[in-house]
Design goal:
682 residues; Helix Hairpins; D-amino Acid Aminotransferase, Chain A, domain 1; OB fold (Dihydrolipoamide Acetyltransferase, E2P); 5-stranded mixed sheet; 5-stranded antiparallel sheet; 24 strands; binds 8-hydroxy-2-methylquinoline-6-carboxamide
Length: 682
């Protein structure tokens, strides 16, 4: 049990001494660390953990003599090391034999049974095989004293300063009776998410990306500066033991894992004892089908004869035990020849270099396209048509080209250039100085961007065309019925009812919705155009400043930069957008088909709600929150989230929240939704 420190304080006659308090805090923090990182079941919120940690840090600062090696403050406390020391493992670290097919697996099982002279099914401990780096942890009298890489199996490198940063590795073993010494063996790995983030950061800062999670984990362990290791968010699963002294040994491998788990080490929850070859095969298939949804990479499963007396009888061949085998999944990485590099145009017009490959079977599927992310990444990797490349497909992630096999580069291989014009629509390709991405400036005109642009155009906060959803837009574009947003306003019920899943009733409803959307506001219209980085706030600023579309379209860069919320990048985006003839044509067509907005008095000045602050609560009848907000802002008022003395009106609907009672207690004016509508509509 963990002492409740608050209780402890109250119970004692007076305050605990700094040394008592430090011990309480250490125990408590280590307990919560264990709940969070090992059991994955935190008991207290992060802020409370941080508070406790800071309290301990403070005590240790004032009383440095109270710092202990297992203090949670000591995980990253170490200075960078100058180099790695060699360490001798107490027991050698073993490797595993491999099986790639069912036959090889059943050969293994047959060899085991033949050697033991046993006919019936053997019980195996089955576990996922983590794709990380093996480490050995030495605990002396329960205290973590050393961490080491596998090295050649007999000698590894000392990496204690780095394993201490891994939160799922306990600095002290739990439990009453701790062994005098115990080598814990396990795998350090990085999650798929951690790996993606690491590579994203590397890409953003122009550094080399990691080829796979295993390299990222192994590299993390070999940092001289533990602060860099800590940044990689490495994790750990224990899978066995090495040398040990003063431990009562269980008689099964599953017993060892239970013992490790009870000592506070993290054990894979997927481990299972299975029976015979059928059990092994079943486990393999279950894990394989879960492979993509696991948060980390695995490259197969491991089977170990569970009974330790059998293990002893089976012994070893060279470094690999006869009692264990790794049954591998199809590889995630393969080599193939890159035929060509093409540029694909994405949602925002971003040009993504895509590798066209000689088809190759990797990660369980045939891959013939792989992403190269962006032009900088392409340059950094220096991938050229004709190159032999390493392709990686992990989980559901898009296959990517990881590296070039330079030794196989044809003499005449030339790098590809970024196209000056969009390969889809021919518009100019622009690249902002600070951005890694190059983009097609074609906007609404570019077919590749069209669907996304239409989705945005019709969306609730833009033109708000109810019923014009994603699937329907796909159909409309694919059938050629809609090319630009203006075409939406040419659709009639008859045409629409010819589409999939479109009855006469929903067709009629959609036609109504389209007609209703014609009356809009200038900010909504500007936002709907989907000019890069012109969100709702910027659209409002632009509309407030110009109140007339023609003047905005003709505004110079210098003029635009002067406007609130408009920086040089947004100003340039606005200019580029209106300079494209196609965009002007679409806008004209929209206006010709009847899209209009009632003239807005500049910034709503002089209107009745000028300077008034509103708070909305509950479900308003006959309007959405957004509509109410728009009504208020249209007349110069402001909507805020919380009630204070400065609030002028609180508008409430059905099931109002605490804001209504707060308004009452502060004496703020209160309007029902109906009163509000009357109030704003004359
Ligand atoms: O998850 C692993 N990569 C893994 C490696 C799991 C194991 O149970 C292992 C291992 C390497 C050697 N067991 C041994 C004996």
């Amino acid at each position: 049990m963990i002492p409740n420190h608050r209780g402890a304080i109250d119970d004692m006659a007076g305050k605990p001494s700094p040394s008592q308090r430090a011990r309480q805090l250490r125990e408590e923090l280590n307990f919560h660390n264990y709940r969070y990182y090992v059991l994955d079941d935190p008991e207290i919120p992060d802020v409370e953990y941080d508070r406790l940690l800071r309290e301990l840090q403070k005590i240790e600062e004032d009383h440095p003599e109270l710092v202990t090696p297992d203090s949670p403050t000591q995980r990253i406390g170490h200075e960078p090391v100058a180099g790695f020391e060699e360490v001798q493992h107490l027991e050698p670290m073993l490797s595993l034999g491999n099986a790639f097919t069912r036959e090889e697996l059943s050969d293994f099982d047959r060899r085991v049974r033949d050697r033991l002279g046993i006919d019936e099914a053997i019980e195996y401990m089955a576990e996922p095989k983590m794709d990380g780096a093996a480490v050995s942890l030495l605990y002396t009298n329960g205290l973590l004293v050393r961490g080491a890489t596998r090295g050649d199996g007999a000698t590894g490198e000392e990496i204690t300063h780095n394993v201490r940063t891994i939160k799922s590795i306990p600095l002290r073993l739990r439990g009453e009776s701790v062994p005098e010494s115990l080598e814990v063996r396990g795998e350090v790995y990085i999650s798929k998410e951690g790996f993606e983030k690491l590579n994203e950061q590397a890409r953003e800062s122009g550094n080399k990306t990691f080829v796979n999670p295993r390299n990222a984990a192994a590299g993390g362990l070999r940092q001289l500066d533990p602060r860099l290791t800590a940044k990689r968010r490495l994790e750990f699963f224990a899978y066995g033991i090495g040398g040990h002294d003063g431990v009562e040994m269980p008689d099964r491998h599953s017993g060892i894992l239970k013992m490790l788990g009870d000592s506070g080490l993290r054990i894979s929850p997927l481990n299972e004892v299975v029976s015979g070859i059928a059990g092994c095969q079943g486990f393999y298939e279950r894990i394989q089908s879960d492979r993509d949804s696991l948060p980390y990479e695995i490259d197969g499963v491991v089977f170990k004869v569970d009974r330790l007396d059998y293990q002893a009888r089976l012994g070893f061949v060279s470094r690999a035990p006869r009692w264990a085998i790794a049954y591998k999944f199809p590889a995630h990485e393969e080599m193939t020849v890159l035929r060509d590099i093409e540029f694909q145009v994405g949602r925002t017009g971003a040009l993504t270099p895509v590798a066209r490959l000689e088809p190759v079977f990797v990660g369980g599927v045939t891959v013939s396209n792989a992403t190269l992310h962006n032009i900088d990444e392409l340059r950094r990797k220096d991938v050229r048509p004709g190159d032999t490349v390493v392709v990686r497909r992990a989980g559901d992630v898009i296959p990517e080209v990881v590296s070039v096999v330079l030794g196989r580069r044809p003499k005449d291989a030339k790098p590809v250039e970024l196209p000056k014009e969009c390969p889809i629509c021919g518009s100019q390709v622009v690249r902002e100085a600070e951005e890694a991405v190059a983009r097609c400036s074609g906007g609404l005109f570019c077919p590749a961007q069209r669907k996304e642009a239409l989705r945005h155009f019709a969306s609730r906060r833009a033109m708000d065309i109810e019923g014009l959803g994603s699937k329907l837009i796909d159909q409309l574009v694919d059938s050629g019925l809609v090319g630009t947003p203006a075409d939406i306003f040419t659709l009639d019920a008859e045409t629409l009812s010819g589409l999939e899943r479109m009855g006469p009733k929903s067709a009629a409803n959609l036609v109504d919705a389209i007609a209703r959307s014609k009356q809009t506001t200038l900010p909504r219209f500007l936002y709907a155009l989907g000019i890069r980085e012109v969100g709702e706030v910027t659209a409002k600023s632009l509309a407030t400043h110009y109140s007339d579309l023609e003047r905005l379209a003709a505004a110079s860069l210098e003029e635009l930069k002067e406007i609130d919320d408009v920086g040089p990048i947004v100003a340039a985006n606005v200019r580029t957008f209106f300079e494209q003839v196609h965009n002007r044509e679409v806008i004209d067509a929209l206006l010709n088909s009847g899209v209009f907005w009632p003239m807005q008095s500049a910034s709503g000045k002089g209107s009745r709600l000028e300077g008034k602050t509103f708070v909305l609560t509950g479900t308003l009848e006959g309007m959405t929150r957004d509509e109410a907000k728009e009504l208020i802002e249209h007349q110069g008022g402001r909507v805020t989230g919380s009630v204070s003395r400065k609030t002028d009106y609180v508008v409430y609907g059905k099931d109002p929240g605490s804001k209504l009672s707060k308004a009452r207690s502060l004496g703020v004016a209160i309007l029902s939704d109906k009163q509000f509508l009357r109030f704003v509509s004359h």
